[in-house]
Amino acid sequence: MRKIEHIGIAVKDLEVSNLVFEKLFGAPAYKFEAVESEGVTTSFFMNGPNKIELLAATNPDSPIAKFLEKKGEGIHHIAFDVEDIVAEIARLKMEGFVVLNEIPKKGADNKLVAFLHPKSTNGVLIELCQEIK
């Protein structure tokens, strides 16, 4: 793992939350994207070298909708940039982590992604991200 790629925050209303974060950072979101396979719309903000992803559910069965129902708005995951996501998944499985996606899938922001179950990472959902070349 090379660095924190972004922090994902689950929100109920993307439009309202975008205004909040625009005021917070003094700049608008630089990117908006729908990830239909996950049932979310996203927006991305930069603050110095740090990236924040806001995630809002587009249907009631999406993982974000379920998260919001159970826990409310807040930090959903921490994503880490990796050079080789397939190798990193194999390494983490050998270390005993519970991998939710043994085969990486396309995520937002031109990334291949896979997640580690929070039960194996002290309650934090971890996302692995590799830029699609």
Automatic annotation (TrEMBL):
UniProt domain VOC: residue ranges: 3-131
Reply yes or no: does the keyword Metal-binding apply: yes
Q: Does the record carry Disulfide bond as a key word? A: no
GO biological process terms on file: L-methylmalonyl-CoA metabolic process
* EC number in record: 5.1.99.1
Root EC class: isomerase
**A Gene Ontology molecular-function term?**
methylmalonyl-CoA epimerase activity
What is any Pfam family matched here?
Answer: Glyoxalase_4
Keywords on record? Isomerase, Metal-binding
Give the UniProt family note.
Answer: Belongs to the methylmalonyl-CoA epimerase family.
Can you say what this protein is called? Methylmalonyl-CoA epimerase
